[in-house]
Task: structure prediction
Amino acid sequence: MDEKTRDEAAKDNFRQEPKVGVYVCHCGGNISDIIDVKAVAAALARYPGVAVAREYAFMCSSNGQDLIAEDIKNLGVNRTVVAACSPSLHELTFRNVLQRAGVNPYLHEHINIREQASWVHKFDKAGATAKAIKLAQAGVEKVLRKDALNAIRVAAEQRVAVIGGGAAGMRAALSAAGKGLEAVIIEKGPALGGKLLELGRLYPSGEEGAAVAGKLEALVRADSRITVHTAVDIDFVSGFVGNFKINFKKADGRSEQVKAGAIVMATGYEHYKPAKGEFGYGEDANVVTLPEFIALMKNSPAGRLALAGKEIKSLALIHCVGSRQVEGVHKPQADGKINDYCSRVCCTAALHTVNQLKDKYPGVRVYDIYRDIRTYGMQHEEYYDKASKDGVLFMRHNEADQPVVASDRTGHTVKVKDVLTWGEELEVKADLVVLVTGMMPADISLIKSQLKLPSSADRFLQEVHLKLRPVELANSGIFVAGTAQYPMDVTEAMAAAGTAAAKAAILLAEPDIPLEPFVAVVDEHKCTGCGLCPPECSYDGALMMGEHNGKKVAVVNPALCKGCGACVAVCPVRAINVAGWTLDQFDAMVDAIAKE
Amino acid sequence: MKVNPELIDEIKKYGAFDISACFNCGNCTAVCPLSKEDASFPRKLIRAGHVGMEEKINSAIEPWHCYYCGECSSTCPREAQPGEYMMTLRRYLIAKYDITGLSKIFYKNGWLQTWLALGMLAAFYWLYASYTGDFGALAGKIELAFPVYVTIALGGYIVNMYRHVIVKPLGGIKASLKPAHIYETLVHGFTQKNFNGCEETDWTRWIAHLLVMSGYVLTLLISNLHLLSPLDDHYGAFGPVSLLVWYAGLAILVGGGIMSLRRMFKSAESSKFSHPSDWLFVVTMFLIGASLLFTHYLNVAYGPGDPLLAKVYRFNIAIETVWILLIVPFTKWIHIFFRPLAVYFQHVKKEAEAGTAFTLSLGK
Result:
């Protein structure tokens, strides 16, 4: 264990006689329009242990914060309860007030009387007021029992490991290096560039995919802070935030290890491969996927589009192949699931390709068969616009009425029950059928199982919160960039990669990573060493049986513990507590609320 | 149904170049005041064009109902000009129903018809001017020949339209004999009352249209019944025939003048696009009105022997000749007849669906 914990010299107020300050916030009417805040303050002022109780229009404003700081200075308040909005909004604000005033910041309790009282009991003002009083009193009981805590600090490797050397991986490494960190790219394939190398012209810039990859690679190779490993196989990944170890085998058989403080998962996607017989794929040479068609068009001479010597004068595109699948209509994939997600980029990619086709071979008839067109990106609608003005005939089917491809010597006949032609079954003749296939996440099951990475129902890696923490995985120190997360285009993947690198750089900005102190703590005197708790722990290595003073006890690794409390629940002798959320505190809160 | 992508390319040769931009949202149908359950357009006709439903297009009567108020075009989010598409379908259908095939050639070749009209005008004027006999008598014969020619031309169209609209899709000869339907057909034909169905009725356009139409029908009567003999008789300014002539000439001049100005300044959706044949139509009509008025004025003021009158009258007959020979059978002129016919055919279709139509069984 190479992390060290460091006790910062925070002022130790908790041995003094507790003096609680209670502050009731009006939230500019959000609370005070329903709750009688004066009554709440008055009731709390009489409550045992409370030195002062006040109410104010906006506690979070600088005037409100000063109110608390002055009470700490003048009245000797050493614990605070703020009854206001949600703790996720302002708990940190008030912890910082305490810290600035020289009180341990964890001797604060944030009570939510907005979401939990005024907003939900609009039509029962008296009831809401009574509830707010109870909640605040429980807060007082809790804060009276709080201990001064200190953030856990973990020493971190000043290095970012980027798994995957495609567009997102290279971008993430460049951004991390740009912020002064070392970056290591670990790529499975023989070259950098990933799927970029296969793509033709990229929308919206029109550059060749390979050219973009080349530019990125040149920058990567020129940066002395970036190390590149290609053609390697990762065989073991372990560790925790600040201290990850990635072991891999190189092409020559030698093994190597990279130590990193943070990991960026830029593992990318695979094209959906249609099942044999899906719209005739694999049975007829003239049924191809969009990536295959892009390659075909790239290699076709101007003036004549041909496949295996036969000229192609008409083609039908079928959208959503392998995407937005419907239970009961589509066959499940190998793992028994259907791909019910939208692959997002295929509509624009298909229309962008059709535009190029129409420019190169204006005479080719194009039929575009879709369920919905989702050209969602900036100016992507113009591809649809151009296609329709160029005479591409669009046909739309319902999810239950999939198009049917029949083939004979003269070519293909595609039958579509066209919603736009009032449900009429239309038949088009096409020399070539192009299946617009979507994305599936690349196979990273080994890394996923070893690091216990979360993935969503559609098998892509899942972020903590799509809006608030869009590139962070639940595992601290591991970030996601690009199509490993969900289908996205190169532009989006690059942006995500920059964000992931920035997040990694923030994490590694100091040599020590501060972690919340809310982790499990074992009372070694009470612990009987029964061994019930380790099997309950979901985080590898966070809780194990060990020895202390010759006695078998449970031992917690605070860097890995998430403070979930699963171990607390099974301990028969109350020997484990989560710091800041102890069983004694909960008991006292429940008693306060239940008291008549 | 087999998709035929060639059809829309063919239709586009008659105008409506932006119609491929349509993505079938249906806003046009929603705002169209004339689009009802039994006549839903323009969306369906656009889609029928896109996928190549030739029979549906060929039997369409909706284009004749449309007055081109322009609501659809100004509402279209794709700027696909659905209103102009309806006008284009009229041209396409006229060409389709025309037995000679000349309309098709004229529509597709821009100004060809106009050049031909100019050439014919010069030729006929020269012919009439160099005629040494009694031109008044000749003019009488020419004017009496007009209705015969027009009837033959029109007959061909009506038979063809009936074949495409009723016989083919309904599988036989069917008719509606309800007096109410026949009456309504006539009312629509003469008053164009569906104009009022257009929201925010464009009154200038309606008045211009009514003036031109009534003036034109009167001119038709005056010439086809040979009511005027300006080289032989001297007319008083307020005689019954004169009153007719004053009204007919002025109505055409004012109405045609308004229409030309609107086309020139593209003041409304309906006048944004002008096919060359639209110009030829309006300008020729204007010239007929002007020369008729001028002829009559000279006759009233200076008597039948006036030398200028002789020239102007020859010009009047020459341009009427061109009009009858070249413009009447091969431009939208015929929509005068198609519009009431469309109203009538709609009744026939409805009755055929209900099984109450008069049916003529041939054999079987």
Observations:
- Chain B has 16 helices and two strands.
